[in-house]
Amino acid sequence: MTLTLPASRGLAPSDRGRAWFGASAKQALGLIVGIWIFSGGFVIVEPSPYEVMFLLAFAVALAGGLQLRRETLPLLLIVIAFTPFALISPFFMQYQPVIDGLIFNLVTIFLLVTSYFAANFVAQAPHTHMRVIARAYIAIAIITSVVGTLAYMGFLPGEDVFLRFGRAKAFFNDPNVYGPFLILPAMFALQRVLLGKGRSALWNGIAYLVIFVGVFVSFSRGAWGHLAASSLLVLVMVFFLEASAREKVRLLLIALGGLMLLAAAMAVLLSIPVVAELFTQRFSLTQSYDTGELGRFGRIWYTLDVVLTHPWGIGPLEYGFLRITEQPHNTYLNVALTYGWGGALVYYLLVGSTLAAGGRALIRASSRPLLIPVFATFVPMIALSAIIDTDHWRHWFLVTGLVWGVCAAPRPAKVQGRLLP
User: Fold this and answer.
1) How far apart are CA 371 and CA 354, in angstroms?
2) What is the tens place of the pLDDT at every residue in 363-392?
3) Which H or E element spans position 343?
4) pTM assigned to the model
5) For an engineered disulfide with 196, which of 187, 201, 294, 398 has Cβ 3.0 to 4.6 Å away?
6) Dihedrals φ, ψ of 167, to 5°?
7) How many CA atoms lie within 13 A of 293 on its CB side?
8) Smallest Cα–Cα separation from 3: which of 218, 18, 49?
9) How far apart are CA 162 and CA 384, in angstroms?
10) DSSP single-letter state for residue 29
11) What is the C-alpha to C-alpha distance for residues 226 and 178, in angstroms, rounded to an integer?
12) How many CB atoms lie within 10 A of CB 202?
């Protein structure tokens, strides 16, 4: 592709070179971000391809491919405010080397930077850039879902690589991360089914079904609840905020037909004895490790006591060396343990401000179609954080950044139809 830079004709050769390089970086950024999002499905090794591709995308953005918007400044201030607390808390560690704590907390800072980057990338060209992200995310979600499902069914050689505790995890280390990772692309696909037409609705319906099965075979109760809650939110927001009176009838028919299709898919899966047995075991509000004084819920009071007596935190993963060997499995308590009271307050501010910004942006007709799938993923995700540690989930920070990006996008003078991601 030839780059045309009319404004650079009167520039000196060195200035023309810089202008050409900046324009090239801007064009390359979209492709690199797409690869970055796609690489998020491969996290078996650390550092993962996701980290490597982000560094490349960040370098290209610095070369002139990304504009920083004033509306994302609060997110940047949150990153800056969080950093000193994250750097201080490892020096209060007693059972592990300080350097290990510093590395852990630097990863958290890194993930916050990815959130800020994603926000500015989306805000620069909301429709175009959200479509890049959605296509890449749906593609890797389908691949990981197929791999996870085939491995669970025993149709892949060496399937144990893609399983853990008899549950699908695909290219992840944990089924409880693999399952929630699939929720946002499922919401992208579902919105296109509800508002799209013809082949687009059909293919996205197939994509949603494939991802649905992928989430199911993760046997993650959190992922099951997340998928159900997010799907319901997308349906409700599309129905009440986007659909016309004629479209509402169509949406009800699609919802009814979709539920019947998903029920049929589950019936087929549950007809397999080993699937039915594991489903019966997992389909419960509580497991043996949830209850009791030292269970997931019972340990909350002990964790609160540790938090209140350590204002600077105890450092990352130190909790497992105390009275209870398992981690808190509650992000809102864990951030206070890991980053101290100050870091926890900044984290709570991040969650609260993102929720408030997304809620306000839903009022804007221009933002709504782009925001619905992202916000419908974010809301149940922060609820899920109360029963599982999510402070190092890569997609948690991505989703947060996407909410900020849509909210920071400039308002078009005139909206030409729906702009779906």
Assistant:
1) 12
2) 887 788 999 999 999 999 999 999 899 989
3) helix 331-361
4) 0.90
5) 201
6) -120, 145
7) 3
8) 18
9) 24
10) H
11) 12
12) 12
